[in-house]
Amino acid sequence: MSDSNELAETRTDWAEDRTILANERTFAGWMRTGMACLGVALGLKAVFSGFSPTWVPKLVANVFVIVAIFIFWSARNKSCQTLRRMQDHATTPQPTTNMTLIAVVMTVGAVATGAILWWL
Questions:
Q1: What's the rounded Cα separation, in Å, for the pair 103 and 73?
Q2: 3-class DSSP state for residue 93?
Q3: Mean pLDDT by 10-residue block, N- to C-terminus, for the chain (120 residues)?
Q4: What is the C-alpha to C-alpha distance for residues 39 and 42, in angstroms, rounded to an integer?
């Protein structure tokens, strides 16, 4: 009976490690989605640059910049929340400070992109 319990605990430990790694992949996926929103913002600005009044394409492009920022921080918050619930065993999870740093850098880049789009 003891061997059965040890095997069950080992499987649970592995499952938690897989969940930690899946959480990191999901975080990366949401970061890519945020970057895609920035790409849409750039594309809208490029395609509709001749549109009059000029503030309309800028406003629409900046909506996508805001959505990108929301995605970055939602992904960070959810990922950190998941990591707090998990215990690592054989894997070393990404520190939550790294996820925060990535979200900060992506936000700064998105704000800069929005500013550049508005003044072009």
A1: 6
A2: coil
A3: 74 82 94 97 89 89 96 96 81 89 97 91
A4: 5
